[in-house]
């Protein structure tokens, strides 16, 4: 039995790392970098014509012109065209039930 306990204590003890690499220290140091080395290379994606507003504006290329044209048509129809609501009942005489 003495042999069994001595082997278990050898297996459970921590062996020295011959490379000097400590995974726990590496994980602790690998958090968020203080300065992103790729930030300058990625900055063009969010500036100039690639901003969020400009990308959204480019999604509907004719929406502004169409809105102005439709609003102009509605104003023209309201001011100059005959609505025709008063003439609807004239065609129906007493004979129609």
Explain this structure.
One of its GO terms (cellular component) is mitochondrial inner membrane. Residues 1-21 are annotated as: Disordered. The chain crosses the membrane at residues 58-76. Pfam families: NDUF_B12 (PF08122). The structure is a single chain. By secondary structure, this protein is an all-alpha fold. It has a domain at 40-81. The protein has helices at residues 2-12, 23-29, 39-42, 52-57, 63-80. The longest helix is centred in the last third of the chain and has 18 residues, at 63-80.
Notable characteristics:
97 residues; mainly alpha; 5 helices; 47% helix; rod-shaped; transmembrane helix; membrane; NADH-ubiquinone oxidoreductase B12 subunit; transmembrane; respiratory chain
């Amino acid at each position: 039995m003495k042999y069994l306990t001595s082997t278990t204590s050898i297996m459970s003890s921590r062996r020295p790392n011959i490379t000097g690499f400590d995974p726990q220290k590496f994980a602790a140091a690998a958090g968020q970098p203080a300065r992103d080395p790729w930030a300058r290379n990625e900055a063009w994606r969010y500036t100039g014509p690639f901003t969020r507003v400009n990308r959204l504006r480019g999604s509907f290329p004719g929406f502004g012109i169409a809105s102005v044209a439709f609003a102009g048509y509605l104003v023209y129809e309201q001011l100059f065209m005959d609505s025709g609501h008063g003439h609807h009942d004239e065609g129906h005489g007493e004979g129609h039930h």
